[in-house]
Amino acid sequence: MMLKNTLHARVLAALNKRSHFLVACIVTSVLISCQDVKRPQAPSNLIPQDAMVSILVDTYLMNAARSIDNRTIVSQGILLDSIIYTTYRIDSLQFAQSNAFYTADLELYKKIFLQVEEKLKIEKTKKDTMYAQYKRVQEVKRLQDSVREILLDSMQKILPKIKRDSLSRILNKANVKKQTTEN
């Protein structure tokens, strides 16, 4: 029993020493990490805020393209970052310095990203609208082709001796005459 109590006391003492050591390490880490962080100064060639928004929008769009079909982009030798730098007449250092300046002010950076998000939503709406129009046009073409096929089939039943190609040419001429008289 006495041996057990002695062993228990030694374990508690060791844990107590370790906890003091752990607390000392944490306090030291906190004191070392609390340093004076200086905000970067505005670079002389700071990218204006509205241009930065446009650059970030294009960057996100290009990254999306990269994630969809990177093989084609790489095989064609397209450098998406270079396209952005050339389009906006900036270089990578200017972009990095401007980005560092804007990220130092979280409220300003949040405002920039809200503008970026809004522009991306507008782009998505445009693309969705264009895609819906494309789908409608494709559906109309499919229906017109179906009607044309049915018409050709019915004409071939009436005039079995005339080949299908000849019937198609006759139908095309009739459509051309119809369109010219409507205009």
Number of domains: 3
Largest sheet: none
Q: What is the succession of H and E elements?
A: HHHHHHH
CA-based shape: elongated
The proportion of residues forming helix, as a percent range, comes to over 70%
What is the number of helices? 7
So what's the oligomer here? Answer: single chain
Beta-strand proportion? under 5%
Keywords:
183 residues, 0% strand, elongated, mainly alpha
Structure in words:
This protein has helices spanning 2-33, 49-68, 70-75, 80-88, 92-104, 106-158, 164-182. The protein starts with a helix and ends with a helix. The chain is mainly α and 183 residues long. It has 7 helices and no strands. 83% of the residues lie in helices and 0% in strands. The mean pLDDT is 79. 4% of the residues are buried. It has 3 domains: 1-30; 49-133, no CATH class; 142-182, no CATH class.
Question: How do the helices and strands line up, and which of them pair or pack?
Answer:
Blueprint: H1 2-33, H2 49-68, H3 70-75, H4 80-88, H5 92-104, H6 106-158, H7 164-182
Question: How is this structure best summarized?
Answer:
83% of the residues lie in helices and 0% in strands.
